[in-house]
Design brief:
The chain is α+β, with helices and mostly antiparallel strands. Helices cover 30% and strands 26% of the residues.
Length: 169
């Protein structure tokens, strides 16, 4: 196919919820909403944790549960945020008042970094205390997020990194 001859709506159709690839990912239970990047990240993180004996097995949380994306077999709660390799900031953490009061929303935060082809590059694991230390307030949106910096990567648990094909679990 010569994609440069496609119109923008024609290209969008190829990645839309009606596309065959999207529908297949839905059939497999990987996509539950239209948030492809976020749900791919959740899938990769859960799959990696479940296939790594030194890490706790994870189950995906119900889509209606706020702030929690996965639960370990021991009942530990995980929030999972996914970013592309070019993005340096996670999605939002809402309810800033309770966060400021240090009311734990989850026990662990997994930051999944995908490359340009949506393949897994890195998984960072932060404790609640790590999250609390590195969170940044977004005044305009009135929420928190985490910036992916060299300092953050150096100071948190890197459980997976593709470039070295090495697991740090």
């Amino acid at each position: 196919m010569n994609y440069k001859d496609f119109t923008v709506p024609e290209l969008a159709q190829l990645i839309s919820p009606s596309s065959e690839a999207f529908q297949e990912l839905k059939k497999r239970g990987i996509l539950r909403t239209n948030n492809v990047v976020g749900e791919l990240g959740e899938h990769y993180a859960i799959e990696f944790y479940n296939s790594t004996p030194s890490l706790p097995g994870l189950s995906i949380a119900d889509i209606t549960v706020k702030n929690i994306d996965a639960i370990s077999r021991n009942g530990e709660t995980y929030s999972i945020k996914t970013v592309s390799s070019k993005s340096r900031t996670t999605g939002s953490f809402w309810d800033p008042e309770s966060i400021e009061n240090n009311e734990k929303k989850f026990q662990y935060l997994l930051i999944v970094i995908l490359n340009d082809t949506f393949s897994l590059e890195k998984i960072l694991e932060l404790t609640w205390d790590d999250f609390f230390e590195y969170k940044k307030y977004n005044k305009r949106m009135q929420n928190y997020n985490i910036s992916i910096t060299k300092k953050l990567i150096k100071n948190v648990n890197v459980v997976y990194e593709k470039s070295t094909e090495k697991s740090y679990a």
